[in-house]
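dude i think i finally got it to work??
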Amino acid sequence: MEKREDLRSILPYLGVVVEGSSLQWPSPVIEPLKAISRGPGHSGIQSGELLFLAISDLRHSLSLSSQRLSASASHGYALFFDELLSTVESTKWFAEVLPALANLLLLFPSLLEFHYRNADALIDGVQTGLRILNSQQSGIVFLSQESIGALLTCSFFCLFPTSNRDAKHLPMINFDHLFSCLYETNDEKMENKIKCIIHYFERICSHMPTGLVSFERKVLPLEDVALCVTYPKADSWSKSATPLCHFEVHRSGLIEDQSKEALEVDFANKYLGGGALRRGCVQEEIRFMINPELIAGMLFLPSMADNEAIKVVGPERFSNYTGYASSFRFAGDYVDKRDVDFIGRRKKKIIAIDALCGMRMRQYRLEYLLREINKAFCGFFYQSKCQQYQRLFKGDGPCGAQLDQGIQGSDSISRSNRSVGLQEAPYVSVGTNEGIHGDEQIGNSEEKGGPSLEHQYDVGVVTGNWGCGAFKGDPQIKTTIQWLAASQALRPFISYHRFGVEALKTLDEVKTSLGFFTWLLPSLSAPYGRPD
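look at this
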């Protein structure tokens, strides 16, 4: 066990230790956890205040006392469990849920051992074990939902070491700041974020889910690598003759509520999760609250570079909600009825891509337009289609000819001045990527460029105003960039939710003509004057 490179990379961030050939909690931790697992009659924990004292004792047993928690965390735990929860809810939590979580922590080392014993055999030739997925290294980690439950329980008890996380550009993972922000702001949205997490724990303690979730770092190499799609330059985009994919516009509805099997875009921070475990409560943070298994990726995924994206497949949704930002409210249980794939993951695909922030007029410059379109392309591309992409970026080759055959209007998109309009849903076809659909077999040449396990070519993109809220991006530009990137990635459709943004009321009037990739990149600054 101790010889595994994947385990060695993550072990300093876990809290458990290697004893001989097995993983264990340090011995001073075990008896307190056993006491908590037997219920409040044995542990004496019947309040948030006493819970935090127990957390502090556990951290001392792990020699984590020098790694200070957020100053107001103790007050936050006490406020939530002793004042904000009803007496009935609090009594049930300490009598039933907390003991079950302690049992899950006791199982954590054996769950990790089982994980590593099976990681090498899960997919032939693909490394899937839990490890730090470093920047510029494409790779994938598979975790059982039970293991994720144990990891998030460690976060709740603040048992993860934090001293070296900043050096690795890893986001925060313990929940102390979440509870601290609750106390410091006395904000209803913080209370309701925590309610989502608490509801998740209640659900898994009553019935542990048995599926898998995968976390993948996708990379567009900056230099040529065999069997990889490299980071496209502006000239490559201008030469592309790829027809536009279907585009449908939704005036209402939410990305997470769509019914198609598609890539659902997470408007991400470069640090996965953004402010999910702090005060943040916009698109990404809300997604992490209603799908808490996403939080597990924050343990081992360092921040994204400009040529990277993060894809998560299979996270279960546990909560309903209403509102947004300050009006966010937990709205009860959600039963996720998504089918599972042949590996055991729910057919839910979330792609995290981070937009540039606060660029003002600079966002119209070629270098920043190129960065944004390549960021979206990194999230949307299939690694197994590398050779097709290479031909498409050259604007010639049999792949381009195949794409043009049998596509109504495709010639007019890529080779004439006839324009194509966007339509409000239900949508109107503006060209498809027919002729290249087929099943990818796991374990093929994808492995060398990053193990993209997507084996269906009918998976489109569901998105919205990426980078247009707090990041101040131009929604019309961001819409076009995502459409072009999805088309170049040979995605069959984009389903766009405009969330009432005024600038997109006439989205169905946008026109695209000769050389649509050329139209975007070299000439976009002209209508806006000279960028500052």
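The longest helix spans residues 87-122.
im so relieved honestly
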